[in-house]
Amino acid sequence: MIRELLQEMVKHNGSDLHIKVGTPPTMRVDGQLIPFKVPPPTGEEVDAECDSILTPRQRRIFMETSEVDFAFGVPGLARFRANFYRQRGSTAMVFRTIPFDAPRFDTLNLPPVIKELAKKPRGLVLITGTVGSGKSTTLASMIREINETMRKNIITIEDPVEFLHRDNLSMISQREVGSDTESFHAALKHILRQDPDVILIGEIRDQPTMSIALTAANTGHLVFSTLHTTDAAQAINRVISFFPLNQQQEIRFLMASCLEAIVSMRLVPRSDTTGRIPAVEVMIATGTIKEYLLDAEKTPMIKSVIEESTSEYGMQSFDQALLNLYNEGKISLDDALRFASSPTELQIKAKGIEAGTDVSWTP
What we know:
There is one protein chain. The chain is of the alpha/beta class. It is built from 15 helices and 13 strands. It folds into two domains: 2-98, Beta-Lactamase (2-Layer Sandwich); 105-350, P-loop containing nucleotide triphosphate hydrolases (Rossmann fold). The protein has a seven-stranded mixed sheet, with helices on both faces. A six-stranded antiparallel sheet has the order 3-2-1-6-5-4. Strand 4 (67-74) and strand 5 form a beta hairpin. Helix 9 runs antiparallel to helix 10 and helix 13 packs parallel to helix 15.
């Protein structure tokens, strides 16, 4: 049953497949949930599929913790990231599609300045956004760009490994939490002895991971990672909040010395064709940004610096990105307003009502 459903999801360019007892299997296409026209599975059927997919080790974890994350491939179809969990006493499953090959950057409709971040010799680059906003895909495209253009030693730590990378000009070691290493922290504890040029951390979840990421970025390595935050300002606050008050100013100094950029993403339904397109906020760590990062009272002013640095540094806020997509006819005004950080301001801009001295949003 599962293979046929996965085939249908891939055929319809779906991103996720949901299976639970008593509800027809449902796939997510362009952000919308669409049920299959098949009978709901029984508990026995779901448990049988669960046993056929999980390895003995994964089955033990699932029995002990009632949830398990892993990735697997179906030959000739795709790779999938899976999460099995228990709800109301029964097993439920979610599968996310992962193409076999990491996408090329130029196919993702991302601002060109992001591609330049892959060429940085050192520093910290954070990709942020909600679940399913394109963070992993963007990082995979940046790793592919490095792999095809530079000779680097790249080490990734992921939970689980999603996109598979083959050595090209670069050497790539992909380590999966749970099978290749005990935890993010355990892997990072020894990573600087593995001679990396580029380090990819699938997700920063705690203070120890964040500490090592900052240390690696400050000692000459290029570090990529993700955070579940909605914009650049919130990402900065999240990083600082990992640490106790007496360390927060020190962390501000560390971030100011190594941060290269924060890229925040939201996927918006297209109006000109099917599918979704990323609206992307880009914050480049300029001298002004670093000055505002060091001062807690000035940190909220970072948004205005982003909006005023579009032409010089290629930065843009979410609302600027949404307005550009709307003006290009790629998204509707309703969707632009729905995804905007400041809907009222965006609506005024979209109607062309601007103060004569306001040039901050002019390309």
